[in-house]
Amino acid sequence: MKKEVRIIKILFWNIYNKNLISPLIDLIKENQLDIVSLAEAENLDITAILNNLKLSGNEWNNIQISPQNDIRVLAKKEIKIIPYKEDGHYSIYKIKKYDKVDCLLVVVHLLSKMTKSNEAQYNRANDIARELNKYEQEIFQNNEKQTIIVGDFNMQPYEAGICSGYGFNATMSAGHAAKKTRKIDGRTTYLYFNPIWALMGANKLVQGSYYNSGDKDDHAIYWYSFDSVLLRPCYIDKFNWDYFEIIEKTENHNFVPNATIDKEKYSDHLPIKFEILGG
Asked: Name one GO molecular function term (predicted).
């Protein structure tokens, strides 16, 4: 009997409080998405999106926890995904298979650099990382942690909130992440793998999900990877590098005209997509 292969395609986009119905529909259809996760989505007409998809033969659901939160998640009807926990800066969902939790999906929208210092960002990342570890323990107990975190971290992947062992403990090294843990001052900490590094500095127009030509610290960075994907080690070999992308355009919408993000028409962030292969 042929073994079932589970493939799941996920997109994240901070939509800048815009009602971006048409671009989102294009993204869903063109990229054959299974789950769409959004931040700053309070003004999005989700009903219009669901109705449009239904007319084209695609049944999708709104997986809502709290309407007060700016995070929204939409999923294909056949995806068994249920809300689990919510905080002001993240929402957690259980993706189930055969009535067991197959994946813990966490969507984050962390503190902005426009309102908080680097220290405040790090402190909040530290708090959230500890909370998520607690929820993982409740769900997976002594089994392997099967968690994916995606969203707007508002931090570069090399900042302490992301890569510190007291933050999310996410490394660019798949080899080190595959070891699952590292010790800091005698304490065992669990690692994430962060693949976004592969898109930074690539020989492409877009080299990050956020653009800023007026850095207050005079850094010549321009493209920032504030939006990212953190994977527990069990997903490293299942990550489809060919699908992984910061999306510049759809058939009907160009998010990056004239080499900069069109935040007036669309968002100040670009969407990112990734795919997990399974068995």
From this structure: endonuclease activity
